[in-house]
Amino acid sequence: MKRKVLIIDDLELVKSVLKRICEKLGLEAITAGSAEEGIALYQTASPQIVTMDITLPDMNGIEAVKKIKSLDPSARIIMITGADDRDKLAESLKAGACDYIVKPFDSERVVRSFLNQMKNKL
Ligand SMILES: [Mg+2]
């Protein structure tokens, strides 16, 4: 079974770039454009990795991290956000995110993070 990455972001461009990175790594990508949709998909699809935007139309991504972690404390969530902000970084890690990548990102940085999370998940 292919390993899955759930991409939660409201921007199509970001979703398609992340999707392409997943495909190159042989990972299945599933996408959600809102926190609510993402949380629902997390429960039905059980992805190994989640990427989380902070600015989402319906909820702050950090709140969404807390919800997913409350459903599954072992969830591995990588923040991928335009917010290059120390407070948001600290808050995200406190909420249970395992990495924090600032947009615009270098695809190598994302690949490294995915591979790291995979290793930790095994
Ligand atoms: Mg956004």
Quickly describe the structure.
The protein is an alpha/beta fold and 122 residues long.
Structural class: alpha/beta
Give the strand line-up of the largest sheet: 2-1-3-4-5
Helical proportion? Answer: 40-55%
**What would the CATH topology be?**
Rossmann fold
Q: Between the first and last Cα atoms, what is the distance in angstroms? A: 14 Å
Q: How many alpha or pi helices?
A: 5
Give the CATH class.
Answer: Alpha Beta
The whole-number mean of residue pLDDT values reads 96
Strand content: 15-25%
Description:
With 122 residues, the protein is of the alpha/beta class. It has one domain: Rossmann fold (3-Layer(aba) Sandwich), CATH 3.40.50.2300. 49% of the residues lie in helices and 19% in strands. It is built from five helices and five strands; from the N terminus they run βαβαβαβαβα. It has helices at residues 12-24, 35-45, 61-71, 86-95, 107-121, and strands at residues 4-8, 28-32, 49-52, 77-81, 99-102. The protein has a five-stranded parallel β-sheet with strand order 2-1-3-4-5, with helices on both faces. Helix 1 (12-24) links the parallel strand 1 (4-8) and strand 2 (28-32). Helix 2 runs parallel beside helix 3 (61-71) and helix 3 (61-71) packs parallel to helix 4 (86-95). The longest helix has 15 residues, at 107-121. Magnesium ion is lined by residues 9-11, 53, 55-56.
